[in-house]
Amino acid sequence: MKNISVIGAGTMGNGIAHVFAQNGFMVNLIDVNKEQLEKAIHTISKNLDRQIAKGTLTEESKKNTLSNITLQNDLAAGVSHASLVIEAATENADLKLHIPVRTGS
């Protein structure tokens, strides 16, 4: 399992994407809102900088982590090659009910 898709780029989604990417997984971070995606990558970068300041991460590791994250606002494209899909979308029932479910490979 190498390809992870995270649906939702809010607080939970960007944190999940950060941890997977930092541990060598390729992550598609998916959100319908492009501004939220940009905010998420900014937050991840800032959190990585905090790890660097604490001496628990190198600049090279930050670069590798960020290169492991792809921002997507097309759900179908974002999950097309995923081994694991994690739903971290906003607590909006209508939105959650419209996220397609795919099983099998």
Produce a short descriptive summary:
By secondary structure, the protein is of the alpha/beta class. It has helices at residues 11-22, 34-54, 59-67, 75-79, 93-97, and strands at 3-7, 26-30, 69-72, 84-87. Strands 3-2-1-4 form a four-stranded parallel sheet.
Largest sheet: spatial strand order: 3-2-1-4
Computed Rg: 14 Å
Listing every helix as H and every strand as E from the N terminus to the C terminus, the arrangement reads: EHEHHEHEH
Describe the biggest sheet? 4 strands, parallel
Report the count of strand segments.
Answer: 4
Q: Roughly how many Å apart are the termini?
A: 12 Å
Helix tally? 5
Give a structural overview:
By secondary structure, the chain is of the alpha/beta class. It has helices at residues 11-22, 34-54, 59-67, 75-79, 93-97, and strands at residues 3-7, 26-30, 69-72, 84-87. Strands 3-2-1-4 form a four-stranded parallel sheet. The chain starts with a strand and ends in an 8-residue tail after the last helix.
